[in-house]
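We now fix the convention by which a protein and its fold are recorded. The integers have meaning only within a learned vocabulary of local backbone shapes. A record is reproduced here so that you can trace the correspondence yourselves:
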Amino acid sequence: MKPGQILARIETRDYQLRLLEARAARLAAAAERENAEKNFGRMESLFREEVITAQEMDNARARRDAAAAAVERLDIQIRMIQEQLADCLITAPFGGFVSRRFFDPGVFIGAASGPILELVDLTELKVKLPVGENDLARLRLGQSVKISVDAFPDLSISGRVTRLSPVLDPVTRTAGCEIVIPNPGGRFKAGMFVRAEVLVGSHQGVLTISQEALSLQGDNPSVYVVKDGTASLRQVKLGFQSGPLFEVTGGLAEGEKVVVSGFGSLYDGAKVEISE
């Protein structure tokens, strides 16, 4: 479907008859106007010669003006019918596809019948997803988003944030986020489920630790650091998180060995043996 392509035609017979009737009435009104103008000219000459009264002159003027107004009214009526005839051709406002047809050919429809077709443009797609209130502050308009589609697990595409709702849902405590992605070839379809990964920050050259190495004792995260065969419980400060990895901002140095499994029965100062 291309822009301007005819999608449907509405029966025009009634409009055509109304147009013929209006044009015939306009011809009659134009003749009446011409006659009224000539009569006004004659009455004007007689008035200057004081043959007729001012009242008769006013009547002639009124008939001339009324005849001219009748022609103008019919001109407007003809233009309206012509516009209605033009509206009988339903054309595509943009390129795309007809996704749904609500009526079969020949069915009677009226102004209150609702839409007759549903059109979609798959050149770009809009992704709608809820964002938690804690993450909302990290998003901004124009931010890059990586989109993956369940139907194409080996394919991902980059989009951009185009809208962030200023209001949170009072039940879910989330805000709506809209992302626009290109769709060359129309491979992705409207209604597909997607996954979105948003890069909210970039921390390079930092020390990271796996989530499985963290021990939550009390309110602070800790790790067991092994040195000289002894495990020491040490609190660490964490920063940015990316998947199972956490940025370590304090409490641990690069190169130190930490316990990553089997520390459920460990305690501070326990003797351990490292298995390579």
